[in-house]
Amino acid sequence: MSAIPCLQFELGKVSLAGVWTLAAMQAELPALLPRLTVLQKEPNAVWDLSCVERLDSASAILLWRTWGERWPEQLVLPEALRETLQRVANLAPVAVIPDRRPRSWLEIPGQLLLRGLAEVRGVIALFGQLLLDAIHLFRYPGEIPWKEFAANVYKSGAQALPITAMVGFLIGITISYLSALQLRSFGADLLIVNILGISIVRELGPVLVAVLVAGRSGSAMTAQIGVMRVTEEIDALSTMGISRTVRVILPKIAGLTVAMPLLVLWTSAVAMFGGMLAALLQLDLSLVYFLDNLPRVVPVSNLYIGLAKGVFFGFIIALVACHFGLRVKPNTESLAANTTTSVVSAITMVIVINAVFAVLTRGIGVPKL
Amino acid sequence: MSAAAVVELQGICTKFAQNFVHRDLNLRVEQGQIMGLLGESGSGKTTLLREMLGLWQPSAGTIRLFGFDLHTDQVVEQRAIHRRLGMLFQHGALFSALSVFDNIAFPLRELKCLDEDWIRRLVLLKLDMVEMTPAHSRLMPAELSGGMVKRVALARALALEPELLLLDEPTAGLDPDRSQNFVELLGSLQQALGLTVIMVTHDLNTIAGLASHVAVLADQRIIACGPKEEVMTVDHPFVTGFFSADRHKLL
After folding, report:
1. How near does any CA of chain A get to the CA of B35, in Å?
2. Is-contact B83 B65, C-beta < 8 A?
3. Is position A96 within any domain?
């Protein structure tokens, strides 16, 4: 018994033997294919398949191609194999289905713009739905999903405390250390308090937390809502008469909007502490002096601006995350694409809003010297 | 080598936490048999199937497919074994990011020795075998109905013309008419390709229409295994309960 497919060609007669299956053929294929190509030019050959033990459809297709997609004139074929070959023969020749027509270069920016506008419209529609839900909840306060709200504050706020503290602490140390090197060369050591105070409380704290939270909670929200759509859990909620926006989306957005300013406060404080430590080690600036001077040189309105940014950032991150979560189509590729887009858009929005804030509040909280 | 059973389980023990799912379980499936695996919900049928596929390692015992131990360290050997079997998952497990065509072509492309024209013909042939048209090949899995998902998944399982086909609830979620068609389809394919089939099912009609042999999983082991006419007469509460309602259907 020969396990491998054999092919013999002599005196105008092609004899096949052995097991003609894909698994058995695989190793022999490089040697087999050229020999079959040669046989294509022998239309009058006699094909003898009587010694073939097994023939699978892959080999049947191979033979059919070799025969030029028609039965050879002289063929010895055992009945057992006829069915396999017949099935291949019955298969209507199908032309290659062309891909979609190639797009011209002009269409690409246009489509990108239209898609972007569609996203903006979707976000606005979601925002409007949330307003309607808020009005509804105002009239029926019993339906407010307090439990989900608390769970979201815990998940996106409390559980983010360690990571934001660690990143804030290290950034505080870095900024303080680098500034101290410059300030010392000017003999302006004491200005470290001003630099750290304004930069961390007003800018770095909120933006740092926003980037971390967009990566951490924003992606989680998109993925969760996305998977709920894939597994039809969202539909199951609707079937029970429970609004998906009230029960799933509103608590997420409200939760992050509440948790973000608290996280900003926490991270700014830890970053400030890191900066103070570095100042103590680098410039011998005592912690007491630092804390005494901080409220004098950094007006408290900076803190309000930082917290207000936190509220806005939290709201935007959650809104964008939920919007993209709802756009997930039931396949894994779409889930991955939407999660990526969600995080990227959220961070971009945060940076844009931060710039707008900087322009609008340029006259507030900056100490006049 | 031909004397070796297609699937041979010896002394399988499976433990989830502290609970035994299988205890000293033995099963042997010979070439060309269509083995129906019966058992109550939660009796570990799907787990047993996953163990045969090497997706789950039992706590004790050996699993031999085609005479080879499944848990060898040889990556190449393991892959060779896996190419000789096809699996139809309960919910299809189609790759949701790929079209129907690419789903079926995937295992063929993995062989890396077939040209595109060959693959295209093979895919269309498989689609034809499961009674679908080339027009369906452009659809995405999310656009298919439940029955079509099953048929595409079957076409994918059959893409490499495996010697062993494992089916997990092949007819669950299909209406009786579709389910009957699917059983007939499986039966004709099994005859045409000479497959060995192991299937987990709750559906008596599927067993009646398809299975030649039946194994009953209860009390953490196989309590009966053999031709279905013999197994039906076994005196065990589960067997009598399962078959009593429609005993005549099986005959």
Report:
1. 23
2. no
3. no
Cβ pair A58:B161 closer than 8 A: yes
Supply B245's token pair. 């309602």
**Which residue's entry shows tokens 């961070």?**
A347
Give chain B positions within 8 Å (CB) of A22: 111, 160-161
**CATH for A53:** 3.30.750
Residue of B nearest to A81 (CA): B192
Count structural domains, chain A.
2
Q: B192, A61: Cβ pair inside 8 Å?
A: no
CA atoms in the 13 A half-sphere facing the CB of A48: 13
CA distance B134 to chain A (A): 8
pLDDT tens-digit profile, chain B (251 residues): 445 778 888 888 888 878 888 888 888 888 888 888 888 877 888 888 888 888 888 888 888 888 888 777 777 777 778 878 888 888 888 888 888 989 988 888 888 778 888 888 888 888 888 888 888 888 888 888 888 888 888 888 888 888 888 888 888 777 778 788 888 888 887 887 778 888 888 777 788 788 888 888 888 888 888 887 787 777 777 777 777 665 555 55
How many Cβ pairs within 8 Å bridge chains A and B? Answer: 60
The reported pLDDT for the residue numbered A257 is 95
Angle between helices A250-283 and A146-156 (to 10 degrees): 30
As for the ipTM of the complex, it is 0.72
- Chain A residues inside the 8 Å CB shell of B165: none
Residues in B touching A231 (Cβ below 8 Å): none
Same domain, A86 and A132: no
CATH topology of domain B32-57+73-250: Rossmann fold (3.40.50)
Spell out the domain ranges in chain B. Answer: 32-57+73-250
Which range of residues forms the domain containing residue A25? 6-90
Mutation site, A91, A96, A99, interface B, largest B CB count within 10 A: A91
pTM score, whole prediction: 0.73
- Residues B112, B115: Cα–Cα separation, whole Å: 8
Q: Is the minimum CB–CB distance between A56 and chain B shorter than 8 Å?
A: yes
| B142 and chain A in contact, CB less than 8 A | yes
SS3 B196: strand
Are A22 and B160 an interchain contact pair (Cβ–Cβ within 8 Å)?
yes
- The 3-state DSSP class for residue B12 equals strand
